[in-house]
Design brief:
The protein is of the alpha+beta class. It has helices at 5-15, 29-39, 52-60, 62-65, 86-89, 102-107, 145-157, 184-188, 206-214, 227-232, 250-264, 268-275, 306-314, 331-339, 347-350, 411-425, and strands at residues 68-71, 92-95, 98-101, 115-120, 123-128, 286-289, 302-303, 359-363, 366-370, 375-379, 383-388, 393-398. The chain has a single domain (71-425), classed as DD-peptidase/beta-lactamase superfamily (Beta-lactamase, 3-Layer(aba) Sandwich), CATH 3.40.710. Helix 7 crosses helix 11 (250-264) and helix 7 packs across helix 12.
């Protein structure tokens, strides 16, 4: 039947008496699911407040729900060789139901692991995707923060930024803000003393209003919509002198991203593309979640494959040449991460108790540096990146909340156990 006759015959059939078209036309199961998931998003609260399989779908398909800004790759793909260490699959994981092998645990209903990838000396020694495909680009939430700080480190090495200077030295737009006089070093280490702690419940709080400006919090037409203006006019005061206490806030990361934009003359995603992503042999373009006005959520909106994020992680290891002929993250910066943190910033977290022996410090937007030289950054709901510049490891993982009670066995502590075990074996 010709291309002309086929639709004509269909039209005749559909207009005959007694021939009824279905009430709903299904284009494709994937399209149907996408429509269903998007229609089920909360309309009176933040979109990410769902749990379980809905959260899993959203995390893997954020680019279908909201606008994103592209991070571009370039050139030949740098291949990651597979040298499987089968002992990792058999690592014993203790659960309330007894002991299970690590891989079996990842596949089980006790876990919400989406994917786990471990590299040693630049080679893949473990890779498993129980709830995603290797080509999918999940959101890494706050792991994103160290992408921002890594650009700061490159600009610092280029002598374009001095982190001992106050931020308003480079961003005079902040001279009327609470950020006036705050040293870049203290912004990097989450120790500004500004009364703008992370907060996603009180919609009148400093942080929630910031989150509305970038579209991370629940917002409507009356919400502030320009994060640059909001931070430039920030006047909430300080609860403590700067440089005295760790206090987690994505506002700090946004300011660092703004600094990158000012120094480079590019929007953040373009600076990240040019300075890192085009230089690591990435397999795919990446993206930043950018739901309002095309402004990337630099405090927690990065999307990429796990392998490509692992390529980024390799820049902090002796195996950086697997992905880049040039050292993009300097030895000086890596030494700073390992040795120049300020453990006293974490003191208040433990009160009168001693800081656990295995911990060293937070630093440069990384959550923790451990005594075994693991450098760790976590993401909300169970994402993570570990780089170890001494033992030459990189680990990337993703997970989500099983239910409102978060009843899953948390993946991050088990990742630490697995990595400590295989490092002891070497």
């Amino acid at each position: 039947m010709s291309k002309l006759k086929k639709p004509l015959a269909f039209l005749v059939l559909c207009t005959l008496p007694g021939i009824l078209l279905p009430a709903e036309i299904s284009v494709n199961p994937t399209v149907d699911e996408t429509i269903k998931q998007i229609n089920s998003l909360p309309t009176d609260d933040i979109w990410w407040t769902v749990n379980g399989k809905d959260m899993l779908w959203n995390f893997k398909n954020l680019n279908k729900i909201f606008p994103t800004t592209t991070v571009y790759r370039k050139g030949q793909v740098r291949t990651l060789k597979l040298k499987a260490n089968h002992e990792i699959s058999r690592f014993p994981v203790k659960t309330g139901n007894g002991t299970m092998y690590f891989k079996d645990f990842l596949d089980s209903d006790l876990s919400t692991a989406m994917g786990v990838l471990i590299l040693h000396k630049g080679d893949i020694i473990f890779e498993h995707y129980p709830r995603m495909q290797a080509y999918e680009k999940p959101v890494y939430w706050s792991v994103t923060k160290v992408l921002v700080s890594s650009l700061i480190s490159i600009l610092e090495d280029q002598k374009k930024i001095d982190i001992t200077k106050p931020i308003d030295f480079y961003l005079p737009e902040l001279k009327q803000s609470d950020f006036k006089g705050i040293l870049i070093k203290n912004i990097l280490d989450m120790a500004t003393g500004i009364n703008c702690s992370e907060e996603y419940v009180d919609k009148n709080s400093c942080y929630y209003k910031y989150s509305q400006t970038v579209g991370d919090g629940y917002w409507d037409e009356t919400s502030p919509s320009n994060p640059y203006e909001y931070i430039a006019n920030l006047n909430v005061g300080r609860y403590i002198e700067q440089g005295k206490q760790f206090d987690y806030s994505g506002v700090n990361t946004f300011v660092l991203g703004w600094l990158v934009e000012k120094i480079t003359g590019m929007q953040f995603q373009d600076a990240f593309s040019e300075m890192i992503w085009t230089k690591i042999g990435a397999e795919r373009d990446a993206a930043f979640f950018a739901p309002r006005n095309g402004i990337p959520v630099t405090h927690g909106g990065f999307l990429s494959t796990q392998r490509d994020l692992a390529r980024f992680g390799l820049l902090f290891t002796p195996s950086y040449q697997v992905v880049s002929k040039n050292r993009l993250i300097s030895e000086q910066h890596i030494s700073y991460l390992l040795n120049q943190g300020r453990p006293e910033l974490m003191g208040f977290l433990y009160g009168s108790q001693k800081i656990p022996n295995e911990l060293k410090h937070n630093v440069y937007q990384w959550d923790m540096v451990y005594q075994n030289n693991d450098i760790y950054k976590g993401g909300w709901a169970g994402q993570g990146l570990i780089v170890n510049p001494i033992n030459d490891y990189v680990v990337v993982w993703n997970s989500y909340f099983k239910d409102k009670e978060e009843s899953e066995i948390k993946l991050t502590p088990i990742i630490h156990q697995v990595l400590h075990s295989i490092q002891r074996e070497k």
